[in-house]
Amino acid sequence: MILNASGCLDALTAASVARSLDAFVTKTVTPLPRAGNPPTRIAETDAGMLNSIGLANPGIDRFCVDVLPRLRELGVPIWVSVGGFAASDYAELCARLDGEAGVAALELNVSCPNVSSPVDATEEIVRAARAATGKPLYTKLSPSAPDVAAAAEAAAQAGTDGLSVVNTLRGLALDERTLRPIVATGAGGYSGPALRPVALAAAFACYRATGLPIVGMGGVETGRHALDLIAAGASAVALGTVLFRDPSAPGRIRAELAAEAASRGFAAPPDARGAAHEGKGASLPLLTKTPAKSQ
Amino acid sequence: MRRARARTCGVEAVGPYVLLRVSRAGLEPGDPGQFFMLSPPGRVLPRPMSLCLALPGELGFLLDPIGPGTRALAELEPGDELDVLGPLGNGFRLDVERPLLVGGGIGIAPLPYLAERLGGAPALLGFRSAAHAEAAALLPGAEVVLEPEYVTERLRPGFDVLACGPEPMLHAVARLTPDAQLAWEAPMACGYGACYGCAVEIGGSLRRLCVDGPVLPAADVAAPPAREAAA
To answer: CATH says A2-37+55-169+189-277 is which class?
Structure first.
């Protein structure tokens, strides 16, 4: 199953790209409209890119009235990414979307690096969201967590149905002449090829810790990259930065993934799930576990 | 929105700029002012470039090699392949009676193709040096000014202005000729509305230049921030 990473595709301006996905994930919706961060919002680096968009979105009211009906017309399952600044924001958004047809799942963005972090812990947010909706919930985790497996376990205990790993890392790029930050907010979210091993390690650890469905993402550019994530434990793969360069990436990567899996003796890509955990190395200690809640 | 693997046909210096010619590879040239995303070898993101010349079987782009992406494009050699996506965005309206093309620096890039599609038009071009002004050869007959003189000092009333250049120039043109069509520039990751990276303030709200522009009526654009007005 191939999805887009939240914020990396607008299905309404690129319907053909959205239709080439198995599900379309929206840009994060917040309770109130947000204009987003001032320009300059993006910068390329040698092995990735920075973005600081700042959750620009029309707010949940206009999303439900203006955007969602048009997304339904695409005929693709819709995952709505929701974000806020307190557990009550997530509960409000999930309750609002609970009865909306065509919304196949909700993704809790608890890890945007470009806005103030939610004041409440991941576990509290997931619990509040769980109480507000019966729709499948995916919790999107940050690769910056000291122990991503502990964060995954906390989300699992609070009732998440799945995990999205990973969001971007915080990074900085300086203008080569002025030595000032290129992105207006200074730092931004770092994505692209450099994130790939980070995402792989997080998917590996989250699968080991929870066994939950996992949408793996971070620097995927080829079918081989997607297969790696599945072997590490992902049950689906999302594409982000690669879509900016190659809008045809979903179809290409799906075909490459099938070929890569077949060449290794798997009847279908999902059969490779968790292959990295089998046999030699399966019992290796992965991470120094820290308590899920340190305070 | 079409994407194709194009072949480099030529890379020629035009003063400090570079004219990159690639095979059309089945891509349409589009309207003047529309742009293409060119993927430089070895870079993560493609670069937006407006079409400069629609040559037989080729697309021509004028580049200013000032960063890693534009330098990588300028270093392509004939026969090298690159991915090209386009044409994208909204170009110039061509239903004008008395066109005047106004360009500043690398902003002259879309004007040669625009002049061709208009069947010829007078042009007023500004450059920072005589070396940069070599690019005026792409628009034979153009009136050329060099800094410290600005194109806006030579703007005459009674023309339909179609302009592309640095932001302060476009804001100045907008003040003098409120009916002008202006082609703007912003960093873009995708060029087709996906990344929200190219947001600019238009009419008081942040809008994506790639899908709402890059050519906009001058009246749509908010007054510049104070620091630019003072510059």
So the answer is: alpha beta
